[in-house]
Write the structure tokens for this entry.
Amino acid sequence: MNFKQEPIGENIFVCTSQEHRFGTDAFLLTYFSKYKQKDTVCEFGTGCGIIPLLMQKKRPPKLIYAIDIQQQAVEQLKAGIALSHAENIIPVCCDFNDFHPDAVNFDLVICNPPYQPCGSGFEASLEAQRIARHGVFCTPEDICQKAASLLKSGGRLCICGRPERLPDYICAMREARTEPKRLQFVSRTAQDMPWLFLLEGRKDGKKFLQMEKPFIMYENGILTGQAQALYQNQKGESA
């Protein structure tokens, strides 16, 4: 199958298709996660692999398990890994609930989950897009419980989503002994309501939520300094 090769940095490529593409939210979530070189990372629902491949651009983590239930998504990621010579990414084709690694305690679990609950709103005609956009195979509770089972104590779960679903993820995190610790809203302009939240939870963390300054994408019709830094030397599709 032929995939489109999208450069996102020097000698780093993401392979996209009609079924599996990427948007601004992947860049935002990667930046927000504050991943470290020493981290062992797991991503649920990697799609075309944009997040693990973005992590190759600066201080790549020690190891990244990139999981997706759809075989085509994993094939796209494998193609991107080969083009980018990214030896620290391990693609896994399975339901993340069935992922049981041997003797691995993760520092970071990251997930850009489906934004709509299953059965709500207008569902995409393509099955791959329906899975990616709607909670066909996972719920906030599924994500948070599985992440907690993989994370070491003090490990972090970073997710993004639509603001109207924020209460679902805060409740799900707490039920999974993962305390919400950082929250940031993203708006197109300073005058617009947020279209995205970025949330970090810490396993076995103490109760204290830090509100970060809103991330503003545009001012007077041009990218803000924040957004320019986000995209520096990277190319991506807008959300």
Remarks:
- The two ends are 25 Å apart (CA to CA).
- The chain has one domain: 4-231.
